[in-house]
Amino acid sequence: MSEDTFMGAPRDKIDWAPTIDYTKCNYCMECVKFCPHQVYEVREAEEKRLIVKNPNNCVVFCRACGKTCGPDALSFPNKNETTKKIKEIRKEMEQSE
Questions:
Q1: pLDDT above 60 for 2
Q2: Count of domains observed in the chain
Q3: Structure pTM?
């Protein structure tokens, strides 16, 4: 992903990335195949074979990869809370100018 900002806030300050529930993940790897942003990494030799390697590559508010996996294997932050946080970040940036 090439965007450094989202809605006027630095992307690296926005908490938006999937969380993997390893008790529900069956390692189908459909999320890896689906996501074009290299958010995930597969590590064959480790117990947790799927990790979120590049969380800032995840497109803010996108949850499409979660629909490719088993029920609730992937979860995302609350959209309303994230929107609120983005507005707070922008306000802080304006005040520091």
A1: no
A2: 1
A3: 0.86
The CATH number of whichever domain residue 71 belongs to comes to 3.30.70
Look-up of token digits 């074009």: 36
* 30 is a domain residue: yes
- Quote the pLDDT of residue 65: 95
- Contact of 55 with 13, CB cutoff 8 Å: no
Range of the domain at 56: 5-75
Query: Of 90, 96, 79, 93, whose CA–CA distance to 15 is shortest?
Result: 79
